[in-house]
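Q: Got a minute? One more chain.
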Amino acid sequence: MEDLAVETGGVADLDSLEPLWVAVHHQHQQAMPELAPYVSDKTTWRERRSLYHQLFAEHEPVLLLARDAGRLIGYALGYAMPVTGTWLADTWATGDLVAEVESLSVLPDYRGRGLGSRLLDELHERLRQQGASDVILGALPGNTDAIRLYERHGYRPTWIYLSRLDGRDRA
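A: Always. Here it is, folded:
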C-alpha cells in the first residue's frame, strides 16, 4: 500500500462504491448466516445507493475514498445531525450535533492493515470540524472484527436493536 491515498469524495463518486458496499453485504452474510435469507447484491446496492443519495440531499456528509495506486479499496461515509430527536437526546448528555458513521468498507484483501483505522480517524476529524464530537454507528453483533475496530476507537455499546423478521419468505 505504498501508493495509498485518502481523498474527499462527493455524490458523483457514489456509483464507484458498489463493489465496496457489496463486500460489506457479503461480510454481513458471513458474520450472521442465521439471519438468512439476505437480499441479492443488486438489491443491497440499489437500496444503499438510494440511502447515500438521500444523505447527500439532506445533509452535508463526509465521504472519504481510499485508493491504492489509483484503485478504490475503501471508503467511509458519515454525517452530522442535530441530536434533538435522536435516541441519544433523552438519555445521554451530548453536544448539540451527533454524527453517524453510515458506512465503512475496506476490500477483504486490504483488511487488517490499518486502513479502517485511518479512514475512521480521518472521518472523525472531518465530522468534528462540522461541530459533531459525539459519534454513533451500527454493526452486526456477529461482525466481531468490525466491533473490535470500533472499540479500539472508543465506541461502546449504547443501544441494541433486536429484529423479528417474520414478513419474508424463507423458501
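A: The domain at 4-152 is CATH 3.40.630.30 (Aminopeptidase).
Q: Perfect, thanks.
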